[in-house]
Design goal:
about 450 residues, metal-binding (chains A, B), Rossmann fold, homodimer, 6-stranded parallel sheet, 5-stranded parallel sheet
């Protein structure tokens, strides 16, 4: 078996071969769904008691009182002071760059007055309370804390509640440090579906929030789907993806390593290159084979590259852009000469990395834009996480006396045509001024 | 039984009484879910053939060929020319006011350069293809066509596909006229879960879309939930709601009729007034009892007012705002002196109608803002339908050679701390410039 598949856009089976690589088995596991359902029910009914039970059971924590579930701020500050200086500095650079970018997303309340002196507008308000789920154990990423917490706080969210499981009491200091730098308000050592339930319904100890964001395993994902409606959720993230459009003039090692940098996430991650230069494709394949054995995450890389990776020969860069739009990748690298010229051709992608120096890994940590991006072709209709995910809008409608007469006529004609007579009468009353000087 | 409940915020059971009025049985009907599941499967597998079968079965349409399902544009234009002049004029006024408001929501692609000449930004693109569901039969509202189609078109959606069932071949001319004025691109006479399936998966005749918007019955709502992920969806709308804060100085008839204008939608619709003036509450109750028997939609009004309506005595207007924030209503009327002064106290509401002349019905048709609003307390975390629902963002990341060195150091420290070595190496390669002058 080859390390990575090779396709050619001129092959008559190209379209179906590509489709079969893009598809993946999303684990629709009924047993997970049932477990999640009963965990959520228990949390809803029994609050802290159920939360303690599940945390003792799943995370093997020796907790007796609910307040033991909260990790006090002093601990995070201690962690921040204890991590290596170099790492602290790196986190701080990330924070300042993520802030700089997301501050550009600030929008304001606006309104305008029409010729009848009616005032119409849109008011922006932050969400009151947001829950941030942060996975524990091996896949515990300080960068994800920053990418979620910083836009929430710039958006003005007054209470940001972070939850993260601490299996066997293990806490990641970098995650605690990131919580501190990200201005998280409270932190609870809980995880899984029970943490999602606690945030959605509230317990005696854990505050009930209005929206839950952040990635998690399949239990967490199911639980988020279930509580959606009771609270808002961000998105259900699929496996990570990178698509690289290359003209064949970037160092082949760079491209190989960029493909690795997605593939190393997990076995379902997807790494694809589109290139018109067959020799260069050979070179990248050689580099992949050469570099792979040296990689610490060899096993994951090998599986994701061979099952879901592909090097695709295309006719030209314009065809590459068409294929990219069809795939609507989470991450798109345009690794070509004059890469900027291809950007207008791209309609669907979570993030577009432009030029040979823009490696996807820079975006994951410190370029500034968010690393929470739409996966599984959802970039066709959704966006990176941003300030807008932590705010909502209310329409403002202030109608003058004159306006109520003019608009009332139109409204009442349309309401009657829809058979909604109370709508019509309510507008008509203002026109008639019935009892209107009662005051 | 009284026509409408009376509550007092000073009662010790107030909080639980209010909760019991706010709650409603969302119909989680397993049989509907099963039916929807099998309809979607059939449409996915058999395309047009299944679509024709279901349309013959559910809408009793005598259709043999799939192209008979499309309603050609000439028919809409004919409808537009045939509706009464007064109604056409009213639709046209609505169109121009909805356009004026939603054009204020236009946002543009932006970018900035940092001190290392890295360019960071955000690109805005419309969704390629949007499906718009419009209910048929009695609850067929031309205003909903306009409220969905106009922002989609201003957002730049190139292909807007409307679907609407035509039971027994019945078509509403006002709906056709609205499709024409709203610049819909194609229209199919299909409905129910089969229409949602056709839009989500595509058939030989119906194009596959990227997002589906618009209200529908419980089959449509279930189907939208099911296909979410394959396509985007707008929201799952609950029963309509109005909350009126009144100082007791608006004509009581106006308030009574405003309460009716939500209650007439359906039996689950909710109408609540908050007022500090007990005499005025009596007056409103009297008006309700007086006006109700004359209303054509008496049966619906009676049920929704008695089951889900309430007149609530509050201490003062500031407490009224607190309760409003807790309820997070779809429509909020502030019918008071100096209503503007209360607006800053409102954190959660779909639309805020300010002042005695701003009746909710004006917002439903022609004030300008969208009438598709978050229901069932979801205004805590979501927004009115808007341009932003028909566009998405892509991050732009263009890193300079110098930037790749500076950012690469930070990224590589953080990637290593997270155990993601390929991420670190990919950043490091740019720093080392490995083979970087290969070109």
């Amino acid at each position: 078996m080859n390390t990575i598949k090779r396709l050619d856009s001129l092959d008559k089976n190209f379209s179906s071969s590509l489709s079969s690589i893009l598809e993946f088995e999303s684990s629709e596991d009924e047993s997970i769904e049932k477990t999640v359902h009963s965990i959520l029910k228990d949390i809803k009914n029994d609050g802290d008691k159920a939360l303690l039970n599940y945390t003792r059971k799943f995370d093997r924590l020796e907790v007796i009182y609910p307040d033991e579930l909260e990790i006090p701020k002093e601990k995070w500050i201690k962690a921040l002071n204890n991590i290596p200086k170099e790492q602290r500095k790196a986190l701080e650079i990330s924070v300042s760059r993520i802030k700089e970018y997301h501050e550009k997303q600030i929008v304001s309340t606006w309104s305008y007055k029409d010729s009848d002196n009616n005032i119409l507008g849109q008011k922006i308000t932050p969400i009151d309370k947001v829950g941030l789920y942060v996975p524990g154990g091996k896949a515990s990423y300080p960068s994800s804390v920053l990418m979620n917490a910083i836009p929430a706080k710039i958006a003005g969210v007054p209470e940001l509640i972070m939850v993260s499981p601490t299996p066997d009491g293990h806490i990641n200091n970098m995650v605690l440090a990131a919580a501190s730098l990200g201005s998280v308000d409270r932190l609870f050592a809980i995880g899984g579906a029970q943490a999602i339930g606690a945030l959605a319904y509230g317990t005696e100890t854990v505050p009930r929030v209005d929206k839950i964001v952040g990635p998690g395993n399949s239990y967490v994902a199911y639980a988020k789907r279930k509580v959606f409606g009771t609270v808002g959720i961000d998105m259900i993230a699929g496996p990570s993806e990178i698509l690289i459009i290359c003209d064949g003039k970037t160092p082949a090692e760079w491209i190989a390593m960029d493909l690795f940098s997605q593939a190393e996430h997990d076995e379902l991650a997807q790494s694809i290159m589109l290139c018109p230069d067959l020799d260069f494709i050979d070179e990248v394949e050689n580099q992949i084979n050469k570099l792979l054995p040296k990689m610490p995450r060899f096993d994951i890389l090998k599986k994701s590259l061979s099952n879901r990776g592909a090097l695709i020969k295309v006719k030209d860069l314009s065809e590459a852009c068409d294929i990219a739009n069809m795939i609507a990748p989470e991450h798109l690298e345009i690794s070509t000469e004059n890469a900027n010229e291809l950007v207008p051709l791209i309609r669907h992608a979570g993030a577009i990395f432009i030029g040979r120096f823009s490696s996807e890994s820079l975006g994951d940590y410190c370029a500034g834009p968010n690393h929470v991006l739409p996966t599984s072709r959802t970039a066709r209709f959704s966006s990176p996480l941003g300030l807008y995910d932590f705010q909502k809008r209310s329409s403002l409608i202030n109608i003058s006396e004159k306006g109520s007469i003019n608009l009332g006529k139109t409204a009442s004609i349309l309401a009657n045509s829809e058979g909604l007579q109370a709508h019509a009468a309510s507008a008509q009353y203002r026109i008639d001024g019935k009892n209107h000087d009662r005051r």
